[in-house]
Every structure is written in structure tokens, then in C-alpha cells.
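Morning!

As promised:
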Amino acid sequence: MASGHQLPRIRHEVGLALERFLDRQRAVLGDIGPELRPWLDAIGALLQGGKRLRAAFCYWGWRAADGPDGPQIYAAAAALELLHASALVHDDLIDESDTRRGRPSVHREFAARHAEQGWRGPAAAFGAGAAILIGDILLGWTDELLAASGLEPAALRRGQPALDAMRTELIGGQYLDLLGQAAGDGSVDEALRVITYKTASYTVARPLQLGAALAGRTDAPMAAACRGYGVPLGIAFQLRDDVLGAFGDPARTGKPSGDDLRDGKRTVLVALARERATPAQRRVLDARLGDPGLDETGVAEVRTVLTGTGALAACELMIESNLAESLRALEHAPLPGQANQALAELAVAATERSD
Amino acid sequence: MASGHQLPRIRHEVGLALERFLDRQRAVLGDIGPELRPWLDAIGALLQGGKRLRAAFCYWGWRAADGPDGPQIYAAAAALELLHASALVHDDLIDESDTRRGRPSVHREFAARHAEQGWRGPAAAFGAGAAILIGDILLGWTDELLAASGLEPAALRRGQPALDAMRTELIGGQYLDLLGQAAGDGSVDEALRVITYKTASYTVARPLQLGAALAGRTDAPMAAACRGYGVPLGIAFQLRDDVLGAFGDPARTGKPSGDDLRDGKRTVLVALARERATPAQRRVLDARLGDPGLDETGVAEVRTVLTGTGALAACELMIESNLAESLRALEHAPLPGQANQALAELAVAATERSD
């Protein structure tokens, strides 16, 4: 039953819902002006990729609450992909990331357009402004697509608190991340707290809860089941992402090899290495992490420290134990068998070493 | 009947609705972390000021559609103040404005906090990141407060298209503004097109339409009445704002005298001056506009050109004729007498020379 999670089908349906939504927006933006055409190209490219995990968890939350299969839930789930795209655009700008899914990040793309055209003023500021606004419109479209999903107004009202919480936790978590880079102590606890809000809750627990609430289940046992399964799984998922960001294959991550190291991302993996490092190993981390010019040799040096300190192994253990905790919670969750089975498979798929 | 528009009462009720909402969010953000406390201080300060025009137009749209007075409509109208605050935070960042309503703008405030604390990395980047995220949360809260207004789900569904259009036009208009600064021809037509989307539709026509739709009037004659009155009034309002930005009293505008000139804002007023300028006058505009170090003497020089070219007089004429067009449309609008009277008063209040 390797395909009980139906991820390929969910991805397909969610992709169609996004395409239909963007087609409508093409007309709306076109009425404002042809200058907005490049927005849809950039947004379309951004929405092409992605694992659609948030959408899949929303779908299975709905099914777990006995919601019927149909276009409404795919459109609602697709709205979460707009929220995610918004967060990526703003996050890449804040982190000064150059690439996203194998393409230039949105602020870089619009800065390049400015430079090519020889426009007035600094190209970087133009790119930043465009990325702020494109992230804004994606954030606004989240609500627009959800409202236009075809779900009944009463269903939408039931789902609203989960969406509200998801958005606030995501944005608040992004600030904790920013603040940690400026003023944090680099500890494992701190890194874990950031990912609890910025990723864990927002990737799994809240989308599940949203799906369930839309289908009518806003009760405490269901919310507890979503959290019990979703929070540890979300942590495991982010830890896997951290490992891939340091060791992953560029063909899979869509980012240059070791890009998280070059960006100086304050991941749990790096925090684990810092806690365990000898003075010599710490010097490597201090000198190399966050160096935008870090080359393959430098990346290899950092990897040696991440492995040599035992941080990588410790991180893999944390992934394993969080995944196990998530699956244990699922065993006790009051969910129908099909949903339970799908969620167990999704948990494994979201945290495995390679696609 | 100078107080038929009830603006003081609307401001008071909307202010209370915002306070209640922020109190709830204080608890939500506190659960994420005490580090988020400064957000609410910054947001609270931002929401203190403002004319509440968008809220007032939403309220009168509701009343024009025979909606009953009550806390629901004040909460719904207050949601528009959150949207506006979001736009201000992101706009100030994009325009690199130092102040807003007599205080440091949000990105400057957080940059100053970073510098004071001696945190790592560049203070300006931290301030920019914080402002992006605070603008994001305000944008998300727009939907949250509207949904929590106590209005029926069916009413919210009726209002959704007006909110969707408002948001897209606002953000799209902000991009036209950014693009105009980089690549525009500085013409009056171009400046008018920017304010049509960025301000006019978003300040008057769409809030009115939203209020009317929430109360049940989504019909074409009502939408046409909102546009007929709202679009020219919104243009007149923005033109008044442009004049105040160049000639206004800092005590009223909350910005240093002549700040729009220092920022090089591409207003209709400036475009009118450019079209009429002699080569000598044009040289003054080219040398002075957008000079961040522009002093009182420089501001006075530019003002002399704005007056001497006849641009100021032409702008005042445009305000007058747009206001007249708006009031004419109102005369033919199918609205109850009280709403009609209130909207006529609001139109005058929104465009008059001083408070």
C-alpha cells in the first residue's frame, strides 16, 4: 500500500486548482496593467515546484473528519500552497537567498530585470520592493482562494481559527528566526523553538487541523490528535530539511550544494555541532558558516565537522525519535483507517532520506 | 448638520474594536514568545493615528445598504485599518521613509533597537526583516478580524469579492508606483494611474462596496454608485495628500515639512510641474527632488517652482473638479438620505485644506 497517501493524485489536483486560480488572477492583474504580467510568471514558477505537503495534510485532515473527496477540498488545500509561497518569497528576501527551487529567488529575478533594462535607482532595492509586494499578494490570495474554494460559508468559519493560528505562528516563528540570527545564543533549544513555530506547527499540525475543521471536526480530541501527530512530525521534517540543506544533492534540493552553510542558517544540526565541537572544530564553524563565497572545499570542511562532532548522527536520531513519537500518537488517534494509514505513510515520506 | 458623517463616533468605535483585537493578539503572540512583545507596541502606535477614512466609508456603505448600527460593522470596518497599516509598513520600507505619523517608521524603529542592543549583523537588514514580517501579520489579521467581526458567514461571503479586489488593486498599485520610479516617464497620466489603484479605489470605492455587500447589496447599481462617487473622491483625496506632502504643516501630516519632496515621491503635483516647467525650473526639480539632505531652503525652492509653474493651482482645480464629480454621482445614487448626506460631508472632509 505504498500509494495509500495518494500524494501524486493530491499534487495533481492541487496543481490544477492553482492553475485555475492563477488564470483568473491573470485577468484581474491584466486589468490593472500589463506591467504586472511578470508577477504571474514568477508566481507560476514558484508554485510549480514543492512537495505539496501542507496541501496533502489539509486534504487528509478533511478525509480524517469524513469529508467527501471533491474539488472543494483541493482548492482549499491549494490555498495553503499560496501561503507557503508567500513565506518563501519573504523568507528568501530576509535571508538574502539567491536561489529557490533551482531558479533565482524572486527578489533576485526582479533585481536582474531592473539591471537588464537599465532602469533608474539601485536594482537590489527594486528587487526587494517587488518581492515584498509579490509575497503580499500571495498572502492575500490565500484567503481569496480558500473563500472561493466552493466550501460552504459555515465550513469556512469553522476553519478560520486554524488558518489564523497557522499564519500567526508562521510569521511569529520567522521573526524568532531573524532575532536568533541577530541576538541568539546558537543553542539547540533556541533552534528547536524556531522550527516549532516556523515549520513544525505550520507544516503538519495546523494544515491537518484546518482540513478537519473544514469538514466539521473542531472538537478537542481531533485537535489533540492533529498536534500529537503533527508537531513531532513537523520537527522531524524540518530536521530532515536541515540535513539536506547541508549534505543534500542540489538536484533534489533545488539549491546549490551546501547552500544552508553558505547562508549561515542557524539550524538544529549546526547548533548540535556547536555544542559538541572542539575548539578547532568550532573555529571551522565560525570561519566558514555564513561565508557567501564558501566553495566546495569549504563546504566539505564544514561537513567533516558536522559528521565528526556526531551532530549529523544526533540529528538523524532526533528525526527517528520524533517520527516514532508521531507514529505512536497516530496509533491512538481517533481517525478512520484509511486516513490513519495515509498519514502514517506521509510521515515516512516527509522525513525519508531521499525521494 | 456638520456631524452627520459621525466620524468622531466611528473613530471611537473602530478604535475600541482594534484595541480589543490587539488585546487578544497579545495573548496569542505571548504564547509564541515574549520576544514578540515589541510588535504589539509598534502596531498599537501605528493604529493610534490615522483618519479612519477607510473604516468610515465601509461603515457608510453598510448603512447605505440599510445595515443596522452595531459592533459587527465596526469590527469589520476596523479590519480595513489593519490592511492599511500593513500597506503603510511595507510602503515605508520600500520608499525608505524614516517617519510615519510623527514616529520612526517600523523598519527604522527595529533597526534602532538592533543598533542599541549591539546585536550581530547589519541593523538596517534586521529592521527591514522585522517590517516585512509585521506588515505580513497585519495583512493576515485583516482577514482574521473580519471573520471574527460577528457578521454572519453568508454576509462575509458576500463581502469577499470587494475585499479581494481591494487588496489586489492596492498591492498592484504599489508595484506600479515602484515601477514608475524606476522606469516611468514622470507624466501626469502615469501618476494618475498609480493613484487610481494604489489609493483611489482602495480608499473610498472598495470600502464602500465592501460595507454595502456585507449588508446584502451586491447588485450592479450599488456597485456603480460606489465607483461613481468613490473613484473621483479617492483621486481628489490623494491629490490633497500630495499637496499636503509638499506644502503641509508637519503637525498635521506627522512628517517633516516637505518630506514627499525629499523622498522624491512621483506625485501628480510634481508631474504637473514637470510638464509646465521652463528649463530653469526643471533644473531645480531635477536637482532637488529626491535629495535626502534637502533643507528648508531647498524645500522652499521646490515650492516656488510648484507654485510658479501653476502646478499647485492646477492640482487644486483637479481636486475641485474630482470632488464635484463625486458629489454629482452621489446626487444620482440610490442611497437613503442619511447615508447620502453623510457621504457628501465625508467627501468634503476628506479633501479640505486643513482639519
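The first helix of chain B runs from residue 7 to 32.

Hope this helps with the figure draft.
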